[in-house]
């Protein structure tokens, strides 16, 4: 992927000083190309305060909304101890398998917090062509992916448990695994879970879809 980074002046500086700093080369946008093992998808921030009714409502977000991080134009601010940066990302190559890590957990000095937002995603036919830079789109004949595995985290960050949804390629059926228990599961039930890590397989032209979802 390409990673574009732009350093930001300190927010407390006067406007004139900020404008001067932005002219310096240190504050100009820079681009590096990097390989990746998986793509981290950021969830919208959970509301800080909830009334009784809102506690019954679990926030939801479409998969394509959080994938927009990699469209080459969406900017996000990243903060370090001393400096702030704006970053944007653009994919330049799509591998046969993609791993998504949905960022549910955040750490601070005191505890780990979990974001319960549900990600709405299709099981099949997720096309990532629009996240490629225009000049490399022609080199990618196949850009559509099908889900083949889904890892779910249930419960609180410190005492929760994990379940795994796995596609059986021979039959096209989905199974849920938890410890030694294996049960059938309908594809539409997978999308209701608090997905944490997902594995997607690129669909080849001669490959028929056996999932029936």
TrEMBL record:
All residue ranges annotated as the USP domain in the record: 1-203
Record's keyword terms, sorted: Hydrolase
E.C. numbers: 3.4.19.12
InterPro entries recorded: Papain-like_cys_pep_sf, Peptidase_C19_UCH, Ub_carboxyl-term_hydrolase, USP
Gene3D superfamilies: Cysteine proteinases (3.90.70.10)
GO terms, biological process: protein deubiquitination
Catalytic activity: Thiol-dependent hydrolysis of ester, thioester, amide, peptide and isopeptide bonds formed by the C-terminal Gly of ubiquitin (a 76-residue protein attached to proteins as an intracellular targeting signal)
Molecular function terms from GO: cysteine-type deubiquitinase activity
The keyword Transcription is annotated on this UniProt entry: no
Highest rank taxon of the organism: Eukaryota
PANTHER family in the record: U4_U6.U5 TRI-SNRNP-ASSOCIATED PROTEIN 2, UBIQUITIN CARBOXYL-TERMINAL HYDROLASE
Name of the featured protein: ubiquitinyl hydrolase 1
Species, as recorded: Struthidea cinerea
